């Protein structure tokens, strides 16, 4: 009779063998090349630095202090949950906000170079989510996607390549977690990709975003009739760069409409396909998002998507990248360097929780470590299922319970102008009534007019002002009052009162139609 201990050992061996077999089969589809992880980490860190230094820091007083357009009292009134959870809501001082931004910049810098990667990732996640919660009117779907993938990054070995941690690990340790030499070259034909629950959830999350967006477009008459993209390019407040030139070619835009729907429909190939077909699909998405960035004011959104798409490129693509960069640097032994790095990381990546090589080199995992692994796996699966459920609710497949803030936060979606793209271009007019009784446009001091401006995008001084205006167009009077106070305090004119108007100009695929329609949002005494 086989002793119970021996039967248990055999059962564990069979489970381990089955797990290894499953991992090897899934690796070409749900695995990520270590070089892709390194490139993704660098891209995300640069995005964080750009978002913080280019967008947020210059506007810290305007959007994140009590002297700005959304003081904490207003946030607590309209979105009390966000006011309670945001670290940035503990103070309305510009100095405190600047200090928190500086801390976030330092964390992003550490992430960029790969120093204490998980800690810097976690700190960046907490501070960025808190910043976005402090003023949800100056974010869009790209910002929420960035937060989601920062969270998922906690379960990925982002320091697998091109990081200080990777260099220290290869220099300070003689053996990796699988027992092989850290510098050994991978066996001929071995797949170097990291494959774990973390990589699977990360890749499937992006595919689910694209798939849900494809379904929403199938539900749209505008998209399925080919007029959505031509109409979007008549929304002048969004169109920048090469956009005005492209907007003149309606036939080209109609073709782009159908190409984008087809590409979204093929997004499943990002995980189903392998090799160069997968690389081609990923490159097509990258090209589409670069086109968006060149023609539309979408803040970080296209660059967030491009950063995540780096994870889908297979080893062959990264071999070409390394070969090209090695030639540019004049490296004498590019192949050896690539093999050394890939070999060590491929085995390192077989862990789902991304623990360090030093910890993995220890004896059998303790009960605490096993508990952490199980907890991490349950958290990942639960998070992914919640995201899928939320997206399914967004396209009407399941019911989403109403909440106090759902109506406001639903605008920060991943819908990408679907199912119904706007049918009117919009801008603001702030009329100031002087003590003399005359009225002036508070933006330029000229006579008040509601005629379409030469360029609606220029009526918004920055991207954050555009996001704020777009989100505020259906807001109530209580949210406009701080805006009116902000205008009154910063004018050098003798203004008795200000009146805020939101003006809309209906558009169709061929351009504006009808007359501008001003709507008074509020009037306040200065």
List descriptors.
526 residues, alpha+beta, five-stranded antiparallel sheet, 24 helices, 58% helix
In total, the number of strands is: 5
**Mean residue pLDDT:** 85
Strand content: 5-15%
- Work out the helicity level: 55-70%
> Radius of gyration over alpha carbons?
26 Å
- Overall form: globular
Q: How would you describe this structure to a colleague?
A:
This protein is an alpha+beta fold and 526 residues long. Strands 1, 2, 3, 4 and 5 form a five-stranded antiparallel sheet that branches. The protein starts with a helix and ends with a strand. Helices cover 58% and strands 7% of the residues. The radius of gyration is 26 Å and the shape is globular.
How do the helices and strands line up, and which of them pair or pack?
Layout lengths: L3 H27 L3 H23 L3 H5 L7 H7 L1 H6 L8 H20 L3 H18 L6 H13 L10 H9 L24 H22 L2 H4 L3 H5 L10 H4 L3 H16 L3 H4 L2 H21 L5 H9 L5 H15 L4 H15 L8 H4 L6 H28 L11 H4 L14 E11 L4 E3 L21 H10 L4 H14 L4 E14 L2 E2 L4 E9 L1
Antiparallel strand pairs: 1-2, 1-3, 3-4, 3-5
Helix pairs in contact: 2-6, 2-17, 6-7, 7-8, 8-17, 10-14, 10-21, 16-17
Provide a short characterization of the protein structure.
The protein has 526 residues and is α+β, with helices and mostly antiparallel strands. It is built from 24 helices and five strands.
